[in-house]
Automatic annotation (TrEMBL):
The keyword ATP-binding does not apply. Pfam families: Sulfatase. It comes from Rhodobacter flavimaris. Residues 245-531 form the Sulfatase N-terminal domain. This is Sulfatase-like hydrolase/transferase.
Length: 784
C-alpha cells in the first residue's frame, strides 16, 4: 500500500475509533436519564446527544481525507495527518473530560467557568480537576488514546477492511441526521448533557453558551434561582490579626432554637453555648432545609438543598459525587475528621463521609466510653445506639492533640438528644413530662461536651485561630402542632435551629436576623478562611452580596409538606391533602393563626411562588444528579399494603377497615390477640400475637393516604381489665415503612403512642400520609 493510501486509511479508521469513544462517553453522561426512559426514548435521547459529537467527527475526518486526496503525490502528507491526529485527540480528551466537568460543575467548561476559576491564581476548577482525576479517569484516558491511535494504525494496514470503516462512518452520518432532526423538540434531559463540550465552549466565547436552560451557579440571577427577593448582606469582619487556621463544626442532634438557651430556650440546659455568644455572631432566623438527621450532612457539607424525595439522595443515588466542604478544606491543606456519638452506618453516612473528603471518620464503636453507651434496639431506631457525648468530645480532643501544629477541619455531632433521648447521669427535673425532661437532660450533656471542647481550645491557645460553628442539625417537636420528634412537619419547632459563628477575633456578641439555610454554612466557612468556594454550591456566604431573603424547606414523610420563609411570611403546602398554611411570624411566632383561609389572594400568590421555588429546586437537583451520570435505585412496587398489628380482646378480636385514598381495601381481624377479660394482657403476650397482613391493592398514579379504622372498641367498665384495643406497629407500602411518628389520629382521644405500637383504644380513624414523589407534588400544586 502506498504512503498516501496508508495515510488516508489511518484517518478513516481514526475517525471510526474517535466516534466510538465519543459514543461511549455520551452514553456514560446520559446513563441516568436513559435508564429511566423507555427503550425508544432512550435511543432518541442518545441520538440527540450524539449528533454534534459525531457531526464534528465526520466533519474533521472528511476534511482531512479531502485534503489528503487533493495533495500532489510528491508532497508528504505527514503534516496533515499530524494536525488531524492532534485535533482528534483534542476532541477525544474534551469529550472524556466532559464527564468530569458535568459531575463537578453541572455543565461543560465554558469561557465563563474559566474566568470564574481565575486560572492565573490556580483557582477552583483546576484544583478540583487535579483532585477528581484519579486512577480510573487516567486509566480511561490512556486506554482511549491506545484505541484511537494504536487501533487506527493497526486497521490502516488491512485494506480489505476499509469498506467496513466507510460503512461505520456512514452510520455516524445517519445518527447525526436523526439527532439533528430531533433537536428542535423539547430536550429530554438537561441541555448541558446533550451539547458537545467543544461547541459549548466556542459558543461561550461569543457570549452565547448554547445552554439556554442552564444558569450559571456562580454569579448573577438565573431562571432556576429560587424566587426570593434580595437580602441586605452582613458586613464582613476585618481580617484577623492571627490568621484562622482551624474550623470546628459542632452539630447538636435534634436541637431547635426553641429549646436552646441563648435563643428561645427557657430552661438552663445550654449555659456553655449561651456564654460563648459573647464572642459570636448568632443568627436568629436559621433553618434546616429538611428536619431529618442525615439530610443535614448533604446541606451543611455539600451546600445544597437535598432532592425533593423521601430518600436521602446519597442513598437513592449511591454514585453521587458532591464537591464537599471537607474536600475543599483538604485541598487547602487542612486535615479532616468527623466524629459521631451515634452509629455512622445509619443511612450509609459512613460511606458518604469517607468518600466526600473526611480523612478520619469515627463513631461510638471506635472508643471505650465509661460514661455510658446507650443501646437502641427498637425496630424504628436501628443504628441509633449512642455513646455519651462527653466521650465523643474526648476523642475529638485526642485527635486534635495528635498533630497540634497541623491546621484542621473537624465536625462533631452529638447523639443523646435523638429520640428516645438519653438523659445521662444524675438527671435534673425541668418539666413534668418524662420524655421532654429526658431530652432536656440529654441536651445539657451535649452542652457540657461543647463546653469541654471550648475549654480545651482556650488551654491549648487555639481559640483565636479557630472558627467554631455551632448549630442544630434540625429541630424537634414536643406536641406543639400535634407532632413529636422530627421529620413530621416544617413548623418552627421542626426546622428553626440555633446557629452561631464563634471566634474572639472576628465577633463580639453580634446578632443577625438574616434568613440563613443550612446550605449557607459551607460557603460562609470558606469565605471567612479566604478559600474559594466551588461555583457548583447552591448556598451563599452570609457576607455575600447576592444573597436572597428567603429559605426553602420540606418534609416528605407525614404528607409531602413543602414551604418557604421570605421575610416574615411563611407558607406551607401539603401535597397529600392540598392544605395550605400561611403565617406572619413577626405577629405569630408560634404559628397559631393560619391566614390562608381569610386571605385567598395572598395565599394564591404564595402558592405560585412556591411552585416557582419547586421548579427551580428540581432543575438544580436534576442537573446535579445527571452531572454524575448516577442511576437512582429502582422504585418499589406499589401493589400491596402490609400491616403489622397486634391487640387485646375482650369479647371479640379487634377489627379494622383499611382504605387507600378512601377506597375499600379490606377488613382485617387480629385473631391472635390475647384476651384481657379476666386479667390484663402482658406485653410479651401482645408481642407474640403480632400478625402481618398483606393486602393486594391497585394503586392510583399518585396515592396519598392509607386509612386504618378501628371498628370494635369494647370495654368492660371502670376497674375491670376487659378492653378490646388495636395496636398498630407499622404500615408498609411501596417499599416504605411508616411508624407511630408518621401516623395522624383523626378521632380525638381514640389512641396514642405506646412504645413500638400506636394503640387505638377507642373506635376511630388513624391515617397514614404516603410519600409522594416530586412529580406528584408538582402536579398537585399546579391544580387550582
Amino acid at each position: 500500500m502506498s504512503k498516501p493510501s496508508l495515510g488516508r486509511a489511518f484517518v478513516l479508521w481514526c475517525g471510526v475509533f474517535l466516534g466510538l469513544i465519543l459514543i461511549g462517553a455520551r452514553a456514560l453522561i446520559l446513563a441516568a436519564p436513559m435508564i429511566n426512559a423507555r427503550p425508544i426514548e432512550a435511543l432518541e435521547m442518545l441520538a440527540r446527544g450524539l449528533w454534534q459529537d459525531l457531526g464534528l467527527t465526520l466533519l474533521l475526518t472528511l476534511a482531512a481525507l479531502s485534503v489528503l486526496r487533493s495533495l500532489p503525490r510528491w508532497r508528504r502528507p505527514n503534516l496533515v495527518i499530524s494536525l488531524y491526529s492532534l485535533l482528534a485527540l483534542t476532541l477525544m480528551c474534551w469529550g472524556l473530560g466532559n464527564i468530569v466537568a458535568l459531575r463537578m460543575l453541572g455543565s461543560p467548561i465554558t469561557a465563563d467557568w474559566l474566568a470564574f476559576s481565575d486560572l492565573e491564581k490556580a483557582g477552583t476548577i483546576t484544583d478540583a480537576f487535579r483532585r477528581i482525576l484519579g486512577l480510573p479517569e487516567i486509566s480511561l484516558a490512556l486506554l482511549s488514546l491506545a484505541v484511537l491511535i494504536g487501533g487506527a494504525k493497526a486497521m490502516a494496514r488491512r485494506p480489505t477492511k476499509r469498506p467496513f470503516a466507510a460503512a461505520i462512518l456512514g452510520l455516524y452520518g445517519g445518527i447525526t441526521i436523526i439527532g439533528l432532526a430531533l433537536s428542535d423538540g423539547p430536550p429530554p434531559t438537561s441541555r448541558a448533557r446533550l451539547v458537545n463540550p467543544v461547541i459549548a465552549f466556542l459558543m461561550s466565547l461569543s457570549g452565547d453558551s448554547g445552554l439556554s436552560g442552564l444558569e450559571s451557579l456562580s454569579e448573577g440571577p438565573s431562571p432556576a434561582q429560587l424566587p426570593f427577593g434580595p437580602a441586605t448582606p452582613l458586613l464582613r469582619p476585618a481580617i484577623p490579626q492571627t490568621p484562622l487556621r482551624n474550623v470546628i463544626l459542632f452539630a447538636m442532634e435534634s436541637v431547635p432554637a426553641r429549646q436552646t438557651q441563648g435563643w428561645e430556650g427557657e430552661f438552663p440546659v445550654t449555659p456553655n453555648i449561651a456564654a460563648r455568644l459573647d464572642w459570636a455572631l448568632a443568627f436568629d432566623r436559621a433553618y434546616a432545609h429538611v428536619p431529618a438527621s442525615n439530610y443535614y450532612l448533604v446541606s451543611a457539607f455539600g451546600s445544597v438543598i437535598p432532592e425533593l424525595s423521601t430518600d436521602l439522595m446519597t442513598a437513592s443515588h449511591p454514585d453521587l459525587d458532591l464537591f464537599t466542604l471537607a474536600e475543599v478544606l483538604d485541598a487547602a491543606g487542612l486535615r479532616t475528621g468527623y466524629f459521631e456519638s451515634s452509629d455512622n452506618r445509619f443511612q450509609d453516612a459512613e460511606l458518604f463521609l469517607k468518600s466526600e473528603g473526611f480523612g478520619t471518620v469515627r463513631d461510638y464503636r471506635d472508643w471505650e466510653c465509661p460514661l455510658g453507651v446507650y443501646d437502641v434496639e427498637s425496630v424504628t431506631d436501628r443504628f441509633l445506639t449512642t455513646s455519651n457525648d462527653l466521650c465523643t468530645v474526648n476523642e475529638v480532643v485526642r485527635w486534635i492533640a495528635q498533630e497540634p501544629d497541623q491546621p484542621f477541619f473537624l465536625a462533631m455531632r452529638t447523639g443523646m438528644t435523638h429520640y428516645p433521648y438519653f438523659p445521662g447521669a444524675e438527671p435534673q427535673t425541668y418539666v413534668v413530662d418524662k420524655t421532654h425532661n429526658d431530652y432536656l437532660n440529654a441536651l445539657r450533656v451535649g452542652d457540657q461536651a461543647f463546653g469541654a471542647l471550648m475549654e480545651y481550645l482556650d488551654r491549648s491557645g487555639l481559640s483565636a485561630q479557630t472558627l467554631v460553628v455551632v448549630l442544630g442539625d434540625h429541630g424537634e417537636a414536643f406536641g406543639e402542632h400535634g407532632t413529636y420528634v422530627h421529620a413530621a412537619a416544617v413548623h418552627e419547632e421542626n426546622i428553626h435551629v440555633p446557629l452561631a459563628l464563634i471566634n474572639p477575633q472576628l465577633f463580639s456578641g453580634q446578632r443577625s436576623d438574616l434568613l440563613v439555610g443550612m446550605m449557607d454554612v459551607a460557603p460562609t466557612i470558606t469565605d471567612l478562611l479566604g478559600v474559594t468556594a466551588p461555583p457548583s454550591w447552591q448556598g451563599r456566604s452570609v457576607f455575600a452580596e447576592d444573597r436572597q431573603d428567603g429559605v426553602f424547606f420540606y418534609a416528605p414523610w407525614n404528607g409531602f409538606q413543602v414551604g418557604y420563609r421570605e421575610g416574615d411570611r411563611k407558607y406551607i403546602y401539603n401535597g397529600n391533602t392540598g392544605e395550605a398554611q400561611l403565617y406572619d411570624l413577626r405577629a405569630d411566632p408560634d404559628e397559631q393563626h393560619n391566614l390562608a383561609p381569610d386571605n385567598p389572594a395572598i395565599a394564591a400568590a404564595a402558592r405560585d411562588k412556591l411552585g416557582d421555588a419547586i421548579a427551580a429546586q428540581n432543575a438544580f437537583t436534576d442537573r446535579l444528579l445527571s452531572a454524575g451520570a448516577v442511576a437512582p435505585l429502582a422504585p418499589s412496587r406499589a401493589d400491596e399494603i402490609i400491616l403489622e398489628v397486634s391487640g387485646t380482646r375482650y369479647q371479640s378480636a379487634p377489627r379494622a377497615w383499611i382504605t387507600l385514598d378512601g377506597e375499600h381495601v379490606a377488613v382485617i381481624k387480629v385473631t391472635d390477640a390475647p384476651s384481657n377479660a379476666e386479667r390484663e394482657a402482658r406485653q410479651d403476650e401482645i408481642d407474640r400475637a403480632l400478625m402481618t397482613f398483606r393486602l393486594p391493592v391497585t394503586a392510583p398514579p399518585c396515592p396519598h393516604q392509607i386509612g386504618v379504622y378501628f371498628l370494635n372498641d369494647e370495654w368492660a367498665g371502670d376497674g375491670k381489665t376487659g378492653d378490646t384495643d388495636l395496636l398498630v406497629r407499622s404500615v408498609q407500602f411501596a417499599g416504605r415503612s411508616y411508624y407511630f411518628n408518621s401516623f395522624t389520629l383523626l378521632t380525638e382521644g381514640a389512641g396514642k403512642n405506646a412504645g413500638e405500637y400506636f394503640r387505638m383504644s377507642r373506635s376511630g380513624e388513624l391515617r397514614v400520609e404516603l410519600a409522594l414523589d416530586k412529580a406528584c407534588l408538582s402536579a398537585g400544586l399546579a391544580q387550582p
